[in-house]
Amino acid sequence: MVTTTAAYYFGPGAGASPAASEKKTATAAPAAACTADADHPKRELRGVWIATTQNIDWPSKAGLSADRQKAEYVKILDSAARRNLNAVFVQVRPASDALYKSSLEPWSQYLTGTAGKDPGWDPLPFLIDEAHKRGMEFHAWFNPYRASYGASTAELPAGHPAREHPDWTIKYGGRLYYNPGLPAVRDHVTKVITDVVDRYDVDGVHFDDYFYPYPVAGAKFDDSAAFRKYGKGAKLAEWRRGNVNTLVAEVDKAVHRAKGHVKFGISPFGIWRNKSNDPTGSSTSGMSAYDSIYADAREWIKSGTVDYVLPQLYWPRGHKLADYTTLARWWSGEVKGTDVQLYIGHGLYRVGSTDDKTWTKPGELSGQVGVNRSGKQIDGSVYFSAKQLLTNPLKAMDRVAKAHYSRPALQPLNKSLGGQAPPAPAGAKASGARLSWTPSAGARAYAVYQVPKSGKDCHTTDARNLVAVVSDPLYAVRSAGTYLVTSLDRLHHESKAVKVKVDAV
């Protein structure tokens, strides 16, 4: 994830039985036609990146107790839940290390302060469960090619893949990278990811913008030997892009072979190519991911090797070199007519910075979400990063939540991932302010709607009456009235609704 000021400007260097509840429970009547309320979309991904590398977001520093680490994570999730966010993207592999128990790579130094040291617990089940408890998707975020923040394999812990296979690595800019041109590297990365998908209940696998390293002035990424061996007559740039495309396709296939419902997506640098590079590029003047880091997001979209793209549009509206609105519309055009979903990455970490006066305006982020909502292709937003979600600079996230996230939202559906609506909740009843029902087979969560006093039921159209998405088959209401409850599978296919009347609270 790009976090430095230089990177901002285009990258570094540039229940009850049915009989008991019969009187208060009935299948809801078909909803009358409703005009969709654009301010309350039925489905929208709303996420936050939680970076672990260099302890950016979590844990706040290395060496904390397990209880302290858990408390910090819960605080982030509670902050997200208060704003009706519904997804977290948690960095589980910053640099060929693991924030989970792995036989393939060593424990991350960001847990204990010492690379390879066992923290005494496996954080990943806890991280996933706490997200699911709050109705949030959990996307496991991997960096595919970064091997070490240092340049020496000898300093890596015993058993580290780069130490065991120094021939896989290239020193560049004071760091170690795995060589994307080597089949053995692609096999290892795919194996690491498949291992996580197999063993943990993740909802997604996520890559950020780091592929071939961002350019470092005066440095050469020396992959000439691999190019000679595997280049097969291609130009160097084409070969490098092909290496990345091959890894993406292999990971996509492996993830869906392991678990068909798991989403695979990538968060590329916000500019694919400029019009000056390619007439079909964006009307921008920044670093080209296609040319500089060999990331061809257009190819991933066209070939369907990703389920979503999440470009990092960390510039404000009106930026002279990379206008937010221009880029949002360009990316919308790229996914139109495909099965690939589009989310936008927002630079929450930029809010309040004075090097661009637009970021001193508290409403800039909210305005960007407004741009997203004005088109049909953008299915949600993700914010970088969790630290600023907590500090809430200029109260910008409060503005976003008030203007756009006053109601929860279901996850956007991706038909290519399968799934089906579970049975409608059975045995729904009210006891005082408490709604309860029997768990539905195949349900990951439940949606609760409050029908307005007018009786107009628009729950199939938008989220204006959606009050909660809960993981357990119960909900405490705040006021008397008529409620609808639906079942959701893990991909948020939604069942028909059952109606429950609450007489008094």
UniProtKB/TrEMBL annotation:
Alphabetic keyword roster: Signal
Protein name (database record): Family 10 glycosylhydrolase
A Pfam family: GHL10
Region of interest: Disordered: 411-432
UniProt feature coiled coil, ranges: none
Low complexity composition-biased segments: 418-432
Glycosyl hydrolase-like domain location: 44-360
